[in-house]
Amino acid sequence: MTRRLALCVGIAVGFVAFALALGRFFPARHDPLIFLFIGLIAGTLPSAWKAAKTDGMGPAEAIAFALGVALIAAGAFAGKGPSVAPGVAAAAGHPALASFFAAGAIVGAGSLLPGFSASFVLIWLGLYEPLLDALRELDVAAGLAAAIGALAALAALSRAVSALYRRFHGIVSFSVLGFTVGSLAIVFPGFPQGAKAVGYFALATAGFLSSFGLARVGD
User: Fold this and answer.
1) In this structure, what are the phi and psi dihedrals at residue 24, rounded to the nearest 5 degrees?
2) 155 or 115, which is more confident?
3) 194-200 — which CB contacts under 8 Å span 24+ positions?
């Protein structure tokens, strides 16, 4: 229980600190930051691939990876994600508390799945910016709903995820890796035009080298 509480506190502090720092820049610098995020996530893929194939890679792992990519990438080809979590009403353009609960649950679930980018899912669902805004504006109700969602996901999924990793490490790891690769397609804003292209791809490259280097140090 103490370990779970420490994990929850660490997630909350890290996410809030990051949100407060990023909240001012994300709306005005959406595309550049997306390219930076894509680079950061892509830089973790080699390390995640190495960890996933610890026990080898057979047909089951290959199928799990392909299904993970296909399921997530299908959302990109289907069009932009819903502006709020599916089935949740929004009032006056502001997501309902249930949306913030869903956002917190996604963050909590993502913390249990190494390599999975909860941020990309939130961006696709249109919940990333509202969550950043709520935290920056110290919206207590929204923050509490998100915290409860994260705690609920951790409580409901932690044992199940641990058991699945123990019994089916390769299949689960390659599924998550597939989700992560597919999520890159979800948030990709398209190829930039003109002078922006150099700066955007420089950000993606910097993000890739940073996370790739940190992953190498961790190994």
Assistant:
1) -70, -25
2) 155
3) 196/31, 199/32, 200/31, 200/32, 200/35
H or E element in which residue 206 lies: helix 196-218
3-class SS at 94? strand
Q: Is the pTM of this model over 0.90?
A: no
Tokens of 38: 């894509």
E strand or H helix at 89, and its extent? none
- Read off the tokens for 15: 């996410």
pLDDT for position 196: 82
Sign of CA dihedral 95, 99, 101, 107: negative
Structure tokens at 76: 């990109």
Contact 11, 150 (CB under 8 A): yes
Nearest to 137 by CA among 147, 149, 129, 126: 129
pLDDT at residue number 93: 47
d(CA 135, CA 141): 10
Q: How do residues 119-135 score in pLDDT, each as one tens digit?
A: 778 877 778 778 877 87
How is residue 88 written in tokens? Answer: 């949740």
Domains of the chain by residue range: 2-23+30-218
Residue 121's Cα: distance from chain center in Å?
5
The DSSP string of 18-87 is HHHHHTTTTTTTHHHHHHHHHHHHHHHHHHHHHHHGGG---HHHHHHHHHHHHHHHHHHHH-SPPSSSTT
The secondary element (H helix, E strand) that includes residue 12 is helix 2-22
Cα gap 150→106, rounded to integer Å: 7
